[in-house]
Amino acid sequence: MKSVTLLIISVFMLISCKNNAQENTETIPKEKKIEFASFGKSIIATDAIAASSMATHYKTLNVGDSIDSKIKAKVNEVCQAKGCWMRLQLDDENEVMVKFKDYGFFVPKDISGKTVIINGKAFIQEVSVDEQRHYAEDAGKTPEEIASITEPKRTYSFEADGVLVAQ
Questions:
Q1: DSSP one-letter string for 57-83
Q2: C-alpha 103: how far from chain center
Q3: Rounded CA Rg of the chain
């Protein structure tokens, strides 16, 4: 009788140890989810391409061409008047000028350095001297810097219908 009781106690102890081991493996911390603030049309954060990949696509475009795209990039500069445009870093050499569809929404003016996901149309544009000067003024450039703009410039442009800003 003592051996049966001892056997039953041993089985219960093994089962309880096994349950504790399972509980400990289930408490592995999960990857932290990035939160986004949304502006304009509601978009999702998945399936955005890297800025460096988009730089390659821009090199194949001509003035007047456009492609639908979703890009993830770092903000270099934002309009300090209203938040009505921003410049994003594509790669080491190139930036993209982002405006918002139908002037329908703005982004916060303090998001320089943050990561954003933008959805819309990528295209090549030739920017006039007057428009370049306007953007320089919005960015808070000095009168000397503004006056030094004397030639039209071919730029990578983007019309965003939705923007997500990483928090």
A1: HHHT--BT-EEEEEEEEEEEEE-SSSS
A2: 20
A3: 27
